[in-house]
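Most newcomers find our protein records easier to grasp once they have seen one. The structure tokens are whole numbers drawn from a learned vocabulary of backbone shapes. The record below serves as our worked example for the rest of this section.
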Amino acid sequence: MLIRKFAETDAKEVSDLIIRTLMISNTKDYPAEMMLELTRRMQPEDILERARRTHFYVVEENNVIL
């Protein structure tokens, strides 16, 4: 397992992971409209913006971001 700083090339994979996790863990507790809005705010461009203004790290194993 490797913990490293986020790289711009990670944006798509991180976005996909966050969206997938939100859909698994939150869809039964929140309305579909809210889930759609959350996924709209977790696109790769949004992840890049967030990473520019925070300390952003990823954990990966076998070249897959966890």
In short: The chain has one domain: 2-65.
